[in-house]
Records
---
Amino acid sequence: VRDLLRYTLTQSDNNASNLMFKDMVNVAQTDSFIATLIPRSSFQIAYTEEEMSADHNKAYSNYTSPLGAAMLMNRLFTEGLIDDEKQSFIKNTLKECKTGVDRIAAPLLDKEGVVIAHKTGSGYVNENGVLAAHNDVAYICLPNNISYTLAVFVKDFKGNESQASQYVAHISAVVYSLLMQTSVKS
């Protein structure tokens, strides 16, 4: 289970996700659990990755708002939500995420002492060349003891993944810059 979860969190692997939904906990159970953590209006999980892959229209039935994703990530890093050992494993594994380093993490990678834990999500490109989703949510710790959560979601984008990543990275850079300016003035 740990290996599947690690692979899902660090590689954003849909196959591992499908295995866990099939053999461990179903979509409805997962949806119900998350509803205990963030507002119901901010998300819905209705289908597995396998089901959405077979019918891309189902992808729009699974959603999370940027606020909902940020709330969940923030709670994971600031509150005790589950067993300490399991929660520590998830938090540490998110720090090892290999996908989307060109998104929120991109402008922070060369900053000394910055620790980034994040999770990406990507959608398909439809027949009109529209990218359904290109997302990232992160919990970021700065060396000056400031921590913050940032979620940037690009939806129905008429461009490629690289361009979408540039927008996400730009927003991340602006937020970081503003937080650093604010902390210097304090």
Note: The longest strand covers residues 131-141.
---
Amino acid sequence: MLKIKQKFLGLAMTLTLGLTFFVAPAPAEAAMDTLTFADSEHFNILGEIDDEVTNIQVVGLDGTTGMTEEIADPENIQWTTSDSSVVKFLDGTTEVATIDDTDTVKIKLLDEGRAYITVHYDAMEISAYVVVESDSAATPSISGISVQVDAPGTANDLSVTNQTVYLTDLAWLADQYNTLQKNCSALHALAMAGNTHYSDPDWAENNLTLFNGGGYVYGIGSDFDSGVEGWQYYVVHSNSSMDVPDYPASRYELQSGDTVVWEYKWLH
């Protein structure tokens, strides 16, 4: 009987010690393998001359889990601009072309044009596309524009050729904060094409589903983003050269003779 009790006590002590020294592993921290902006609206910045944009923050991103985290050593971050005549950083009140040692910046829009601001950190980088509009360079209408929409079925296919886009005909897009206001964009062309094809001046307003201030075309007619497939665009110029922009159609400024092609395809 004594041996049985000793065995029982030994087992109990083993379990007790095991429980005492067992510590549950801490949740894994995000494995930062790329960069992103804390506010997704800062991937595309639209404004006018002398506008200032504040609190543009870069953070680390785990591409597998989608978790973000602040960068622990901001002293190793550098910000640059692709065109310092269009946009610069503000170091206090001083306008500078580069700025270091910070994860959060303020920028000033200086002149009409297009530029990228880029963050560099630990062999990684990420850019924001900046568009500055001005009254002096406005194009409230543009001619010779063609549009093709290749939907997954046939219900929402449409095509128009050699049309003129007028901003005044698409006044509802002025409420879309992420959309060119003084110049005709590829999104304006899509809206014009829908109205023209269906002979209905309100078709686009009632049948285009837009998010992020026009920056994302979620649906054309009854064809919506599925999460796997969605709407993407490219532009063919009159000389047959092609653009596949990495920024929204709402920011793409048209040239006379452009053809804007919309396809419903795998997202990537």
Note: Residues 2-21 form the longest helix (20 residues).
